[in-house]
Amino acid sequence: MLHTVKDSPLNHHTLAQALHYMQPGDRLLLWQDAVIALSAPVWRVQLEPLAANGALYVMQEDLQARGLVADFGQPLAMAELVELIAELGSPQAWS
């Protein structure tokens, strides 16, 4: 299953909820304000193992809009996200 989180982890608990409910083999996509988690040390510790397993995706456009660069996780363009959803089925959106 693909879990998607769009809210900043600095203001919302959606990232914590998604991480809590993820099962082995699940994947996580950070988009919109959730991409900020990549720059927060407390979240990096939790997200880097997902990235190491190829289970963390980050929307490239959202990183660019916030002046961030992903040094871990797999950046995705919108077309790649469409392909990922086609592969994995309907995502679980956390909001």
Strand fraction = 15-25%
What name does CATH use for the topology? Hypothetical Protein Ychn, Chain: A
Number of domains: 1
Cα separation of the termini: 16 Å
- The CATH superfamily label reads DsrEFH-like
The largest β sheet comes out as: 5 strands, parallel
Task: Using the 3D structure, state the CATH architecture.
Answer: 3-Layer(aba) Sandwich
Name the helicity range.
25-40%
Computed over alpha carbons, the radius of gyration is 12 Å
Envelope shape: globular
Number of helices: 4
Unreliable stretches, pLDDT < 50, 5 or more residues? none
Mean pLDDT, to the nearest integer, reads: 95
Number of strands: 5
Element order, helices and strands? EHEHEHEHE
InterPro entries: DsrEFH-like, Sulphur_relay_TusB/DsrH
GO molecular function: transferase activity
Keywords: Transferase
Protein name: Sulfurtransferase complex subunit TusB
Describe this structure in a few short sentences:
The chain is an alpha/beta fold. It contains 4 helices and 5 strands.
Task: Provide key terms for this protein.
single chain; 95 residues; alpha/beta; Hypothetical Protein Ychn, Chain: A; five-stranded parallel beta sheet; 39% helix; globular; Sulphur_relay_TusB/DsrH; transferase activity; transferase
Description of the structure:
By secondary structure, this protein is of the alpha/beta class. The model has no long low-confidence stretch (mean pLDDT 95). A 5-stranded parallel β-sheet has the order 4-3-2-1-5, sandwiched between helices. The protein has one domain: DsrEFH-like (Hypothetical Protein Ychn, Chain: A). It starts with a strand and ends with a strand. Helices cover 39% and strands 19% of the residues. The chain has 4 helices and 5 strands; from the N terminus they run E-H-E-H-E-H-E-H-E.
